[in-house]
Amino acid sequence: MQPQKKYTFTSKIGYGLGDVANGGAFALLGLLYLNFLVSVEGMNPALAGLVVMIARVWDAFTDPLMGVISDRTRSRFGRRRVYLLFGSIPLFISFVLLWYSFGIVDPIGKFIYYTIMYMLFSTAIAITAVPYNALLPDMVEGYKERTGYITVRMLVSNIAATIAVTTPALILGAEAYRRTSDFLRMGIIFGLFFAIPLVLCFFMTWENPQPQKQVRPGLRGIITEFMSSFNNRAFRQYLGIFVFGQVATDIGTAVTAFWLTDVMLRSDFLMIASGIVMISALSMLPINNWLSKKHGKHYLIFIMLPVRVLVLVVAFFMMSESSLILLILICLGTGVGAGSISYVSWVLLPDMPDTNELIHGARNAGVFGAIATFARNFTSGISIFLVGLMLNLFGYVESTAGVIIDQTPLALTGVRITFSLIPLVLTLITIFIGIRFVLTKTGHKQIRQAIDYKIENGKPIQDQQIIAACENISGHSFSEIWAGRD
What we know:
Layout: H1 9-17, H2 20-40, H3 45-72, H4 81-97, H5 107-139, H6 143-166, H7 168-172, H8 180-204, H9 218-227, H10 233-263, H11 270-283, H12 285-295, H13 300-303, H14 305-317, H15 324-347, H16 352-360, H17 365-393, H18 409-435, H19 441-457, H20 464-474
Helix pairs in contact: 1-6, 1-8, 2-6, 2-8, 2-10, 3-5, 3-17, 4-5, 4-8, 5-17, 6-11, 6-12, 6-15, 10-15, 10-17, 10-18, 11-15, 14-15, 14-18, 16-19, 17-18, 19-20
């Protein structure tokens, strides 16, 4: 048995470095990639959105497979961290290739090239992000202790995202003079920025020894192991919060450049606005951490997301003549809402393996990490696809050679609806699911009591209050789940 590691701030920073790629890459791609394909490469908006959507369908295969592989890996470096080390190289290479098409002119040729490159990037993300998302349950025990690690992770992730959305303008130069080589240079710089922290995370983290459990062999065993995770009420609710909340944020992010450029006529404010949003989200972390530890990890949904609702309603009615102060307030409120749903999405994840252990007697953190990674990739992809589809539906005309085209009133209405009303509906759905969420702070303590009692005594706990909590969280009769069977 290895000695218990100390939960120091340094170890929290080391763990957080593993999320630089996830936080920074998604922020940069969400903000610039659709605009890059449409306005720089001259692709049709619907085709540009389809590029990312196809890669997200590909994720449906790579992420679950990587999760099961991670759970079954045995190496002297552990079963999670080894992928952070060796996966950093393909992540760097694939990210660079996202921003350069080697002079391809044919529209279909560009579509095929960028689709393949995005699929390669998605695979590289799966190799690193899935094991990383499964690492914390193998590192740290305890509801509050995991919250502390996730808070530092979100701090590092938000700093990375802030850098990713505020510094590209310094690399690319003025919008009117940008060339494809400028985007290649940006890809190389940020590729290194995303890859190096993964290596540092490998050396600064650890994995506690895990019990060896018998696994089902073959493809059928993999599918069974993956699908069993959905036989879990708390996890299904978690996915609802994750997907609807993140899609609401990602759609707003993907259409921000179009909203500022064509509706607000403030294209020069894009990087500033993005920086304000990120800094606002970053400044909320201490409050989010305190509220989560005191009241429960889903509590932020009731407090912070209504701010996002108000912001979206106001933004829909804003005109190009609206004051700069109002625009800044919109950015601040967006940061509060987007930062909070992102925090909730990740702070709840390390507790999901506990619910699976309650039901099935196995934690399967790799599978849960895979599903979370797929959900994150899918929300990003579906968001960009929907934005491209909506812009095309309302007659938005793509730019040629970077020249901005005056859009029709119908196209501008489409931008408004996509930026405000669609995220508004999705945010309201997220709040509704959050109100019904069953894995509260007290509930998590009760299921751990049931699990630990079964492990120590070999029989189910008899406390009726704990039994009721287990049934509510799992969605099953106590006698049907592992913790309740003799």
